[in-house]
Design goal:
Elements: E1 2-8, E2 14-20, H1 24-33, E3 37-43, H2 44-48, H3 61-76, H4 81-91, H5 95-109, H6 114-119, H7 127-139, H8 142-198, H9 205-239, H10 242-254, H11 258-279, H12 284-294, H13 298-312, H14 317-322, H15 329-341, H16 344-400
Antiparallel strand pairs: 1-2, 1-3
């Protein structure tokens, strides 16, 4: 494989060129032996495709699910890892995933392990995924591990897809409603307000409020739009900071309906992760550590880190969890039963299924609440607007007759 590089000499002179090597590490090593300090290096294929803007490229979870299922099938058919990754890199429809798999193939040719090669593609394969593959390599159960991963990711994908699909319709309706209302306030209401004002009739207070909102949109709408865009950008930036993530988590759990949903979601994720890793032979301390990294919430991450330290100190996993009020007593008690009977894995699998069902039911309940609330809200808003306009017009018509 050819690599395009930028480097500087020990005298500070800039050098650019191309080097052929099996993988990027060997390419960097070859340049360093020439006395060059590498500042930038990428494969020739990536260099030619810089204009494709990786920012807009991504690998959806569905593709990783399919990849895991295909890997399990190929390993079950006794296909070597190198051949399996080569076949998948040539046949995947996602270009970014194809390039990542090509890099993994090059690393495997250089003698790297599968887990080590995947770990270099951290933007595609999470720590959880990499450690599962590592455990499969060490135990000789790669077929089962990729099957576990496919099942686990499939459950996560189904849950995420269901949540998104449930919110698409309400979001679309509300979005269209606000667009229509803005057009009404900026195009229709100003014309009607001039007619009603010129008539000399007494204007009701609620109609004056509508006219005031319309005047605000007409005169200051552009400034409000700029403020809204800047505000959203600022919130997105703040939400990505550690403090912002903490505040966002607090808001999630403080919300009346959403708080309970998020609690069940993260408990389901913890149980599912732990079950999948323990079933693959990963030690419990390492399993807790990885779960803390991938749970996706600062509060539960802190709980799992604390539990990991307690387990290292000699406590049982159930005892470590029971010290945190966010973890239901039911969960810690059932895990304790699993520890006493030597069946923690099956207990965690049962808990994962239980909380997955709870999350499904909570989503269904939430959607059931959103739709009637949305209908009432839209009906009231449209009704108030129509009454505010039609009553003065009716009065004008009555005065003329």
């Amino acid at each position: 494989m050819n690599y395009v590089y930028t480097a500087i000499t020990d005298k500070g002179e800039k050098r650019e060129g191309m080097i052929e090597a099996v993988n990027q590490e060997l390419a960097v090593g070859g340049l360093q032996r020439r006395g060059l300090i590498v500042t930038s290096i990428k494969s020739e294929a990536d260099a030619k495709k810089w204009f494709e803007l990786t920012l807009f490229e991504h690998v959806p979870l569905k593709d990783i699910v399919i990849l895991s299922r295909q890997m399990s099938t190929l390993f079950e058919a006794q296909v070597s890892a190198l051949k399996a990754f080569s076949l998948l890199s040539e046949n995947t429809e996602n270009k970014l995933l194809g390039r990542k798999l090509e890099t993994i193939v090059a690393d495997l040719q250089a003698g790297s392990s599968i887990a080590a090669a995947m770990a270099k593609q951290g933007d595609i394969f999470s720590d959880f995924y990499v450690n599962m593959v590592k455990a499969g390599e060490e135990s000789g159960k790669l077929t089962q591990v990729f099957s576990f991963l496919a099942d686990y990711l499939d459950r996560q994908y189904a849950l995420t897809t269901k949540t998104k699909n449930a919110l698409v319709y309400p979001a679309f309706v509300v979005g269209v409603f606000f667009v229509v209302m803005i057009l009404m306030f900026t195009l229709i209401v100003p014309k009607l307000s001039s007619i009603i004002t010129e008539s000399g009739q007494a204007i009701p207070v609620y109609t004056q409020v509508v006219f005031g909102i319309s005047n605000f949109f007409v005169n200051y709408g552009i400034f409000m739009l700029i403020f809204l865009v800047l505000g959203v950008a600022g919130l997105i930036y703040y939400a990505r900071t550690p403090k912002g993530k903490q505040v966002l988590d607090d808001i999630k759990f403080a919300a009346p309906v959403f708080g309970n949903l998020y609690n069940k979601l993260y408990l389901s994720r913890i149980a599912d992760n732990m079950d999948t890793m323990l079933s693959s032979g990963i030690p419990i301390v390492r399993a807790i550590e990885i779960t803390a990294q991938v749970v996706g919430n600062k509060r539960y991450q802190a709980i799992m880190v604390s539990a990991m330290e307690d387990v290292k100190a000699g406590k049982s996993f159930s005892q470590a969890l029971s010290e945190h009020p966010e973890v239901p007593k039911l969960m810690s008690s059932i895990i304790r039963v699993g520890e006493e009977t030597g069946s923690v894995g099956s207990i965690l699998k049962m808990l994962a299924r239980f909380y997955n069902r709870e999350v499904d039911q909570s989503i269904d309940t939430l959607v059931g609440l959103i739709e009637p609330f949305m209908i009432v809200f839209l009906g009231l808003a449209v009704g108030i607007l129509l009454v505010s306009i039609l009553v003065p017009i009716y009065n004008i018509a009555g005065g003329i007759s």
